[in-house]
UniProtKB/TrEMBL annotation, chains A, B:
Transmembrane parts of this sequence: none
Residue intervals of the HTH gntR-type domain: 9-76
Keyword DNA-binding part of the UniProt annotation: yes
SMART domains: FCD, HTH_GNTR
Listed PROSITE patterns: HTH_GNTR (PS50949)
Record keyword Protein biosynthesis present: no
Annotated Pfam families: FCD, GntR
Species: Glycomyces niveus
Keywords, ordered alphabetically: DNA-binding, Transcription, Transcription regulation
Protein name as catalogued: FadR family transcriptional regulator
Length: 234, 234
DNA sequence: CTGGGCAATTGGTGCTACCTTTCCGTGGAT
DNA sequence: ATCCACGGAAAGGTAGCACCAATTGCCCAG
């Protein structure tokens, strides 16, 4: 589940969001210098708020603050590219395609192992839920219910990441949810999921349910390679 | 290269560091409530400094700030476990072993694909450097120069991650360096690297140099599985 | 005794004013 | 041309204020 704005309140959050987006989008290129004064004036906020937003950006590696010189935008290589906010900002900007590609590579790396681990570590409830979801996916896919299909797909992949028992894998669930949602928004999904995809979802679920780790891993890998080739033209 | 706070300057940094460590270590368990006043008094800093540290912790998902309630420590599942600072804090605390395990799983997921990508995308300089490093590793390993071996190993793995052309993989270089260093500090390394490890380093380097992607991937996977089994007893 | 509403308390939110510290530029002296 | 000293710009840090929201608990009605 992506959770945008659950806090809602907070005056420094809009500032953080806007600056983060602009930096991630490259509108404020590396080397560009901001000042607290400038931020205050631009957003009509106090020094306190400007400083807090700046500190958070600094902790993400997006900027560096030095006395006398100002707030400098840092090169991309220094960013915390695993920070969910940074990923979100890049997915919202012109680098969306590139970010989707690197994230898909990450998915191909992580999700097969997560599925394998899930086959070993999942609870009975998780196993049956996986099978159930795979069946639902087939039904929705054949019916052409694209958005509902996507939501279940998000749940399916999130479930396996959670069930892997590795909290670092589990932490990727939200990010991958954003990838799946962003992919359909970008029109990188076929209008009707290919039958192979449904077969592979079934295969993964069955292998997880049956505790067949290696099988779950290879099926998930095949599924994701399928996903990558499908979005290559995009 | 690990770079612990080369900025040094900054009064809010020690506060952030201490609180982060305590939360990561579980000394401040989920649900525990802090107040800005308490932080001010404890560290002898002003409200501004306490607030900035709190905001950064909040952006890492370690705490949540609510009016009238205070600053609540959030459950582990909400943490940004990919944030380098969070990883560092957990590696420094009692959860070190668990963190090393999840990170090793992540390595097994990511590094083989990164090596495969490096075989496709590396520059000529990177390819020759990889071969050179593998040879150096063999020499150092046979000589039993453990710390120097480790430093070259750090460079080797970082090089391939950088060369993969995927910035998310590249961003893991620092973290993996911390894992390698932490592993030797924890005594989870054999006193003399096993010959197989050296052979596999060679195989990876040769495959990358020769552009044989699949071969680089499988060799790297074998190398990391070796690593995992070696640290399982720990 | 229970429940609902109202008021007091608590603690973060945001603002302003002011001082300190660090360095970047600049300009003058050698 | 080089070096050094100095002024000023901008972040770093402190203090105290008004404000607001949520929680706590009290009080009174049923």
């Amino acid at each position: 589940m992506i959770e945008r704005r659950q806090t809602g309140t907070g005056l420094h959050d809009p500032v953080l969001e806007k600056l983060g987006m602009e930096i991630a989008a490259g509108e404020l290129p590396p080397g560009h210098v901001l000042t607290l004064d400038g931020i205050q004036e631009r957003f009509g906020v106090s020094r306190t708020v400007a400083r807090e937003a700046m500190r958070v950006l600094e902790s993400m590696g997006l900027v560096q603050s030095r006395r006398r010189v100002g707030i400098t935008v840092r090169p991309t290589a220094d960013w915390n590219v695993f920070d969910p906010k940074v990923i979100w900002w890049r997915l919202s900007g012109p680098a969306r395609g590139a970010q989707l590609r690197t994230l898909t590579e990450l998915r191909i790396a992580v999700e097969p192992l997560a599925a394998g681990a899930a086959a070993r570590a999942a609870t009975p409830a998780q196993r049956s839920r996986a099978v159930e979801l795979a069946a639902t996916l087939r039904r929705l896919g054949e019916a052409g219910e694209l958005t509902e299909f996507m939501e279940r797909d998000v749940e399916f992949h999130g479930l396996l990441l959670q069930a892997s028992g590795n909290e670092m894998f589990a932490a990727l669930a939200d990010v991958i949810a954003a990838v799946l949602r962003g992919r359909t928004q970008l029109g990188l999904m076929p209008h009707k999921p290919v039958p192979e995809a449904m077969d592979l979802h079934d295969a993964v679920a069955a292998a997880v349910a049956g505790g067949r780790s290696a099988e779950a891993e290879t099926a998930m890998r095949a599924l994701l390679v399928e996903v990558r080739t499908a979005m290559l033209p995009g």
